[in-house]
Write a structure and sequence with these properties.
Blueprint lengths: L4 E7 L8 E6 L2 E5 L16 E3 L2 H5 L4 E5 L5 H4 L2 H8 L3 E3 L1 H13 L7 E3 L5 E4 L2 E8 L6 E8 L2 E5 L17 H8 L3 E7 L12 H13 L5 E4 L5 H13 L3 E5 L1 H12 L9 E2 L3 H4 L5 E5 L9 H6 L13 E4 L8 H13 L3 E3 L14 H11 L1 E7 L3 H13 L4 E2 L6 E6 L4 E5 L4 E5 L2 E4 L3 H12 L1 E9 L9 E5 L4 H4 L3 H13 L3 H4 L2 H16 L8 E9 L1 H10 L5
Parallel strand pairs: 3-5, 5-6, 6-7, 11-12, 12-19, 13-16, 13-17, 14-15, 14-16, 17-18, 19-20, 25-27
Antiparallel strand pairs: 1-2, 1-21, 2-3, 4-23, 8-9, 9-10, 10-11, 21-22, 23-24, 25-26
Bound molecules: zinc ion (2 copies).
One zinc ion binds next to loops.
């Protein structure tokens, strides 16, 4: 193999989520992050999305290890599911390790040996010299990855922002970034999430002031919801509760697990004592502040169950307040607004980032990105972590920042970073897998095609009993599952069965012996008989049972009166 340095993303380019990047030098490669994503309405019933790691699995002997930049689901969530197959060394910081351990425990999977490293410590992953450089984000211990290669230095930013007062964890290590960049950086591979947002992302400290004032004005119960991993925000909300004489109650397992992981790593020293769920109902209403899971309206989360009146221990009522201290994720508005509506209908006040300052983003806005480009001054820039519109905006942004070579990369493309000019050399298979019944299935496959069709158009099941010459032995059975309204279908069912019988019996000898041709004839007849418009395409499933002469003879013997 020709010696060169390449970058290939298996996820993270064109979507926010599923982050998974491969850096290769010579015949070894290193994986950076391995995250999950959340499915849209095109994948009905899917719970989680995973990157397609077939290329890695087919080249396992080349995989030197996996480096995890931080503990967000979109960066490490896929690891427990792929672990059986990967079984490579994993490097991460203590907090990511604490979170990963709990994930493996919760899924009852065998725990991998993690190589826990602190920011600033050098470690080697195959041919790469690596170092975590601490950056602020919406979770403790987020890191940029500083990579030394034979061809020069790469800074892979991970998820980052500049927060002058992050409140939990250290500041962005700007001196380390500047020092790393001093002798020149070959490539900056960088977060694109907020590239369209002018200015700066703001500080957690500002949210702490604002949220505190907001809670102080409330008289009923207050529930605050945010991402379970946003440890600083949970502390902010808890302190706002404490400052206003409220006990802090944790509702939802994922928050509890994340707080445990944070405490294990030495964070949250100021956190007030936390009460069990059951306390929510026993305390006077103006003496309780709940930290609740479900900021994105996740179907099984505590807040969704509370709003539906289905939570076993926690209720909210008119005069209470729910504060969504989180981003309204584009694409998720409908789900989330339905939850807001449900709460408002019950007389509960809903506060979001749209009507009060209750959230700051964990990703860099334009002014912060400008700073990064000035510190690093890369020769090559590769936008990552974004939908196509973010990546494209970042592409233009990097050009404006004077970067010599900006590369618009897509998932699967093998980008040669060095030697020579950056160039896409080829492609590896990529795609998305969905979690179904504990296993991973391709999102492009048969399963979701059929599921989408059935959801949209319903289905009809036709059962035929034929002898081996194709004579119809019994009236066809037809089941209508959501294809037509029963009032319209039921009166027609018998006539349709007759039409199907006639259509099958009219087939020529050769056709009637061929199951697939019989099925086609039944489908065409059914559509025509029901007068379905062209755009209405219910799934028509035809089952054929062909009785053999032996079976027919046996049936005749056993049937009284037939003979
Ligand atoms: Zn993140
Ligand atoms: Zn991320």
């Amino acid at each position: 193999m020709t010696e060169m340095l390449t970058l290939t993303a298996l996820g993270g380019l064109g979507e926010i989520g599923l982050n998974c990047y491969l850096y290769a030098q010579g015949d070894r490669f290193m994986m950076v992050d391995c995250g999950i994503g959340f499915p849209d309405e095109l994948l009905p019933g899917a719970e989680l999305l995973f990157p397609d790691l077939r290329y890695v699995e087919e080249n396992l002997e080349r995989l030197a290890g996996l480096v995890v930049t931080h503990a967000h689901e979109d960066h490490l969530g896929a690891i427990p599911y792929y672990w059986e197959r990967l079984r490579c060394p994993v490097w991460c910081t203590p907090f990511a390790a604490a979170v990963l351990r709990r994930k493996f425990e919760d899924l009852e999977r065998e725990l991998p040996a993690l190589r826990v490293v602190e920011p600033g410590v050098t470690f080697e992953v195959g041919p790469f010299g690596c170092r975590f450089l601490h950056v602020t984000h919406s979770i403790p211990e987020s890191n940029a990855l500083a990579i030394e290669t034979r061809y020069g230095r790469i800074l892979h930013t991970g998820d980052w922002k500049l927060d002058p007062a992050p409140l939990v964890g250290a500041d962005t290590d700007i001196p380390a970034i500047e020092e790393f960049a001093r002798d020149g950086v070959l490539a900056l591979v960088a977060d694109s999430t907020n590239v369209m947002v002018p200015g700066t992302s703001g500080s957690e400290a500002e949210v702490r002031d604002s949220l505190g004032q907001l809670v102080a004005r409330k008289t009923g119960r207050v529930a605050v919801t945010t991402f379970s991993s946003n440890i600083a925000r949970l502390e902010t909300a808890a302190l706002a509760g404490q400052a206003t004489g409220r006990d802090v109650v944790v509702v939802g397992r994922s928050i509890r697990r994340m707080l445990e992981a944070a405490k294990e790593c030495g964070y949250l020293r100021e956190m007030p004592p936390l009460r069990e769920e059951s306390a929510a109902q026993h305390l006077p209403r103006d003496r309780v502040l709940m930290l609740v899971t479900g900021s994105q309206g996740e179907p099984r989360s505590a807040l969704v169950r509370i709003a539906a009146g289905q939570h076993p221990r926690v209720r909210l009522e008119a005069g209470d307040t729910v504060i969504f201290s989180s981003k309204i994720i584009p694409g998720n508005e409908r789900t989330l607004f339905a939850l807001h509506n449900q709460l408002i209908d019950a007389g509960i006040e809903v506060v979001t980032e749209e009507d009060h300052f209750v959230h700051v983003s964990g990703h860099p806005c334009q002014e912060e990105m400008e700073q990064m480009y000035r510190w690093v001054r890369p020769r090559i820039a590769v936008p990552m972590h974004g939908e196509p519109r973010h990546l494209f905006a970042h592409f233009r942004f990097a050009q404006r920042m004077g970067v010599e070579k900006v590369v618009a990369l897509r998932n699967g493309q093998i980008l040669r970073l060095a030697p020579g000019e950056p160039e896409v050399l080829g492609e590896v298979p990529t795609g998305r897998f969905a979690l179904e019944n504990g296993g991973l299935v391709p999102s492009e496959g048969e399963l979701f095609r059929v599921r989408r069709r059935v959801l949209q158009h319903g289905s009809l099941f036709v059962t035929l009993v034929l002898d081996r010459y194709g004579s119809v032995l019994a009236p066809p059975q037809i089941a209508n599952l959501g294809a037509l309204e029963p009032e319209r279908f039921d009166p027609l069912a018998e006539e349709l069965a007759d039409a199907i019988t006639r259509a099958v019996e009219a087939l020529e000898d050769e056709a009637v012996m061929d199951d697939e041709r019989v099925r086609e004839a039944v489908r065409i007849t059914t559509r025509q008989f029901l007068g379905l418009p062209r755009q209405k395409r219910p799934l028509i499933d035809v089952r054929i049972t062909r009785l053999t002469p032996e079976v027919l003879a046996a049936l005749e013997d056993e049937t009284p009166g037939v003979r």
